Amino acid sequence: MKIVVTGGRGFLGTRLVSRLGSNVTVCDLPDCDLQKYENALRMIDGADIVYHLAAIIGSEKYMHGSDSAELNIMQSNLLIDINVFRACIETKVKKVIYTSSCAVYPMRRQQYLGTIFSEEDSEIVDPDGGYGLAKLIGEKQLMWMHDIKVGIVRFFNVYGVGENNHAVSDLIRKAIAYPEKKFEVFGGQQTRDFVYVDDCVDAMITLGNNVGESPIVVNIGSGQATSIKGLAEKIIKISGKDIVPKYVDIPIRQFSRTGNISRAKKVLNWEPQVSLDEGLKRTYGWLQNYSTNLH
């Protein structure tokens, strides 16, 4: 069986490829630019299952800093999805597992603390900018591909060992550098649903093994809301340092993003195994070693 993982050199993709074993074709930059159809066709030809993780992401400013940024991120990701899906149809791929995002959920509801999103909530089309709209359109394309078995995972805030550009890793790096550098926390009251990378990989593999004739769409998160202030306090405790945090007021685009994961529990018999405390300890230790090795 041929397995293709697009985005297989990224944070999540690397862990997935490692778990899937040796019979995996990785399609990722620099040798495979999926914004060119011929690359998608060449890599996907002969595949039985495609785990489609490849997407262009970036900082808040890069993705949402202007209308031009929103347009660029939407068009770039739509092009990648279109090329991958077209190649899957042409080469008669049997299964596609697509990594979507909580960004598909209505922004107007993300402005209220305590909001929990179920899969049906995406029916209100008000996603988070160009990136969220591209993911929503990606999902819709898959729903029309009736000859392919489709599984869609909507990830919430994925963190863990191997990731170095996230709210979690940013705060951990600040804790490691303290007191030479300030421990600044941007915002504090906004909440997020943090889910450890290995739990996400488990969910994708389980979905790949169980998807049937009807498409499956599932939220993958912890199901728990954690404030950025609470996250900072957990990291300070792990550091063992007497850190005095400095809270910085910033404009907040989303106050609340938490997933209802009851469908994943029921349909996939999946639920997260790594608690936030344990995941933060693992990530702190990895980043500490990573920082040391840089010097």
Q: Roughly what is the average pLDDT, rounded to an integer?
A: 95
Shape: globular
Q: What are the secondary-structure elements, in order, as H or E?
A: EHEHEHHEEHEEHEEEHEEHEEHH
- What is the percent of helical residues? 40-55%
Number of helices: 10
What's the CATH first level? Alpha Beta
The assigned CATH architecture is 3-Layer(aba) Sandwich
**Poorly predicted segments:** none
Strands of the widest sheet, in order across it, are 2-1-3-4-6-11
CATH topology, what is it called? Rossmann fold
Please summarize the sheet with the most strands. 6 strands, parallel
Total domain count: 1
Residue share in β-strands = 15-25%
Q: What is the number of beta strands?
A: 14
**First-last Cα distance:** 43 Å
CATH superfamily: NAD(P)-binding Rossmann-like Domain
Radius of gyration: 19 Å
Class by helix and strand content?
A: alpha/beta
Tags for this model:
single chain; 295 residues; alpha/beta; Rossmann fold; 6-stranded parallel sheet; 4-stranded mixed sheet; 10 helices; 42% helix
Report what the structure shows:
With 295 residues, the protein is α/β, with parallel strands linked by helices. The protein has a single domain, classed as Rossmann fold (3-Layer(aba) Sandwich), CATH 3.40.50.720. 42% of the residues lie in helices and 18% in strands. It has ten helices and 14 strands. It has helices spanning 11-20, 37-44, 60-64, 67-90, 129-143, 167-177, 197-210, 228-239, 262-268, 276-294, and strands at 3-6, 24-27, 49-52, 95-101, 116-117, 149-155, 157-159, 184-186, 191-192, 194-196, 216-220, 226-227, 246-248, 256-259. Helix 1 links the parallel strand 1 and strand 2 (24-27). The longest helix has 24 residues, at 67-90. The chain is globular and about 60 Å long.
